[in-house]
Design brief:
This protein is mainly α and 417 residues long. The protein has 2 domains: 201 residues, no CATH class; 210 residues, no CATH class. Helices cover 82% and strands 0% of the residues. Helix 6 packs parallel to helix 9. It is globular. The C terminus is likely disordered.
């Protein structure tokens, strides 16, 4: 997925008006699309944790379709009505040249939310069924489809960059959702044949109690992308910063994504204590390895090669991205630990602490962004990266603190028993 984001940015950079279309994509379309789909992102971990029998499957399937359909309706209202002008022009304060390209891109992204809702629900079932390789295969298929659409757009060369980019993203998630549907059928058939209810049975009340704190987590977290875009639009070098934002974000996300799946691993294996120490060692390895590799890129000519030759940024934008990369080096080291501690809390049903952590992330990020706008002397890209690092640091600390306390309480209760 991280590679997909990089390919999209590199393709836009090679089509007409790259600075405008990169800013439209990274500053408006992608943040808003992610914000709308945010409540269904945690469907993967929810289906992994809760889909234990046929009744639970049916309940969560209907829940997924209703939630995904409702969010798609919200996307339509934003992309096709005057609400777009209010959000993009007034609230985000996006530069005028990106308004219409961003509108076209957002309209193209309409199928995005429901496709991801279905895909992540099925992925959770597949993980629960122990067929995790199919999840990786589905991602490779998605990447292949997206890359094919991007390549066709480059070869034709007449379509706007924002249309090529969003068309590739939508095509990829649609095909991947179809592939996940085909792969999940054996798992669903097993549910149908067993029809053994879990004790106690999953109810809509418990599902909502369990899921809504999780849904708020990415919703609040991804809201900071829109807050960040709005803040950067009001700081020095706004257009250049918004243009570099998706390129730099794609590169850092590629290294951060290595640790994101740790959460599902923790949820799956937390009932087997013998996995705890090897898992912690593994998290240390990917944490230090990911940030170490990013440091190597920042400290060598690889940075220039990446931003100019691969991402096709102009020398001026490449220099801006290279200097901002130094601020982002620590981000990949924090992501696997954030996922690890969050997985422990989800496994024990303490999802409220997850929501509290992301609220602190929003508070820390927004505080630094507001200071950057008020000061008005620092390039927006630098402030945006520094604000993200601040927020994630606070969030990870809060998750660590409460996972440690919850884990200790659990061990104490076992000893008493």
């Amino acid at each position: 997925m991280g590679v997909e984001l990089l390919l999209v940015a590199a393709t836009i950079s090679r089509l007409a008006n790259p600075e405008i279309h990169l800013a439209a994509y990274g500053g408006v379309v992608f943040p808003l699309s992610l914000f709308i789909e945010a409540p269904i992102i945690m469907m993967l971990v929810a289906s992994t944790a809760l889909c234990r029998d046929w009744a639970a499957y049916c309940l969560m399937r209907n829940f997924t379709l209703i939630l995904g359909g409702g969010l798609t309706l919200l996307h339509v209202l934003l992309a096709f009505t005057p609400l777009y002008d209010v959000v993009v022009e007034v609230l985000l304060g996006a530069p005028q040249p990106v308004w219409e390209p961003a509108r076209m891109g957002l309209q193209m992204m309409t199928p995005w939310t429901l496709s991801i809702a279905v895909r992540r629900f099925f992925q959770g079932l597949i993980i629960r069924g122990g067929r995790t390789r199919l999840v990786g295969l589905g991602t490779l298929i998605r990447l292949g489809v997206s890359a094919s659409v991007l390549l066709c757009g480059l070869m034709i060369g007449t379509f706007p960059g924002i249309i090529v980019a969003t068309g590739a993203l939508v095509a990829g998630v649609l095909i991947e959702a179809g592939f996940m549907y085909a792969c999940v059928r054996p798992v669903v058939q097993d549910f149908q044949q067993q029809r053994v209810g879990q004790q106690p049975p999953l109810t809509i009340q418990y599902l909502c109690t369990f899921y809504w704190p999780l849904a708020l987590t990415p919703l609040i977290s991804l809201a900071t992308l829109s807050v960040g875009s709005a803040a950067i639009s009001r700081m020095p070098r706004a257009l250049e910063s918004l243009a570099v934002w998706p390129v730099l974000g794609g590169l850092t996300f590629m290294f951060r994504s290595v640790g994101i799946a740790v959460q599902e691993v923790v949820v799956t294996f937390s009932d087997r204590p013998e996995f705890l120490r090897p898992l912690q060692q593994f998290v240390w390895i990917i944490s230090l390895g990911a940030s170490g590799t990013l440091l190597l890129i920042a400290a060598t000519p690889l940075s220039t090669i990446w931003f100019e030759s691969i991402a096709a940024l102009s020398p001026e934008l490449s220099a801006l991205a290279g200097s901002a990369l130094w601020v982002a080096i620590v981000l990949p080291a924090l992501s696997p630990w954030e996922s690890y501690f969050q997985g422990e809390l989800v496994y024990r049903g303490a999802t409220t602490y997850v929501t509290q952590a992301v609220l602190l992330y929003l508070l820390g990020t927004s505080s630094l962004l507001i200071l950057g706008v008020l000061y008005g002397q620092i390039t927006g890209l630098y402030v945006g990266i520094a604000a993200t690092l601040t927020g994630i640091s606070i969030q990870t600390w809060w998750l660590w603190w409460h996972s440690h306390n919850v884990h200790g309480s659990h061990l104490h209760s076992q000893d008493c028993t």
